[in-house]
Amino acid sequence: MIEFSFWDILRNLLLATRWTVLLSLVAFIGGGLAGMLLLFMRIGRRRALRLFARYYVELFQGTPLLMQLFLAFFGLGLFGINVPAWLAAGVALILWTAAFLVEIWRGCVEAINKGQWEASASLGMGHIQQMRYVVLPQALRIAIPPTVGFSVQVVKGTALTSIIGFVELSKAGTVVTNATFQPFTVYGLVALIYFALCWPLSKSSQILERKLNVAHRNH
Amino acid sequence: MSLIEITEVRKSFGSNEVLKGINLDVDPGEVIAIIGKSGSGKSTLLRCVNGLENIDSGSISVAGAQLQPDELHLKALRLKVGMIFQQFNLFPHLTAGGNVMLSQTVVKKVPKPQAEAMARKMLERVGLEHKFDAYPDELSGGQQQRVAIARALAMQPIALLCDEITSALDPELVSEVLAVVRGLAKEGMTLMMVTHEMKFARDVCSRVVFMHQGRVHEIGPPAEVFADPKTPELKQFLGML
Q1: Which CATH number applies to B4-90+158-240?
Q2: I need a surface site. Which of A81, A95, A189, B89 has the fewest CB within 10 A?
Q3: Could you say which of A119, A129, A218 has the minimum Cβ distance to residue B106?
Q4: What percent of chain B has pLDDT over 90?
């Protein structure tokens, strides 16, 4: 039997962490872009688009991420499309992230005083111009802390992709455990690595919140 | 020909009819004060002229631009009438100068240097040229309102709507804003203002409109309206003050 040193375990986990980080980034950036698009639909003038965005959010917030991963992975397979695990994981996480970001951002847009819409309208701006120059700059500022806070959920959400066989940190933990028979050490390390990824994010969310609030009061 | 033509305008919020057939023509250079109790429809009327509220029937036109609910017509209308609000509604993320420049560059596509020159000129006109780089929350209420006036003026409207523009101000700040409005009136700007400043209405306005329960109840030159109110409602309203 091969002996695994602590360093072997840690090295393998850290190598897999790269995929967790990459998947988180893909989900967050992709979800951010999709979320922005959905946001414009959700608060736009077209009723059909508004409804689409609303039901989209309800569907993805109302079902477990795990089911979404299964559906993306196995569902498309039914149609003869062979979906690799990384693709299913990426797509499902992007769609899931988007659904949550839309709602966070919609709240921020709606927090902007009605007077801002009226004043910009009275100056002749159209809807897109009002959004682009008046409402979004103010909304984004209040959106930063909750958005960064939500990114923690995304990082932790990537752990679920281990179930469809994507080898990220959690999956690597299982693999290494099976080889070493040291579950406590391995999963302890896995948890610590997740913590090392998430803690700075939640901390920076708190700091940003304090900073932006102060900035909002005095400029 | 009248500059602002308001004809048989009706407007309801749900089952509550707030404007019950308003007719009012405003000539170029006229300064109209609209007075009346709260709930009489005076603010709603003003907001309709700028298209911030849709009207149910009747018509409103400003210098030939008709009020229609689509964005193109609204834009054309709003380029002719500026509006100033009770709560100032400055854009808090932009400096005073930025506030005055934004709509010029975005709506009229004025190049930045020209927009900035215009902004400086307009801020000077309201006595705030030294506050170009100040953010709204570094300004007093009176200063904010004057920036809002400069912002509206920078779009070179032919008429201005003022919706209780001094009501949110501390008493000692009211006069600086009114002084600016007085200056505009003197220069021949057409103004429609909802106001509670009776003394100002008396001194500056060419006509006073008294609104009561969604109708123009009494209208005339201030000397007449204030000295010799014809209806008991107006008598009571003036007596209340």
Answers
A1: 3.40.50.300
A2: A81
A3: A129
A4: 79
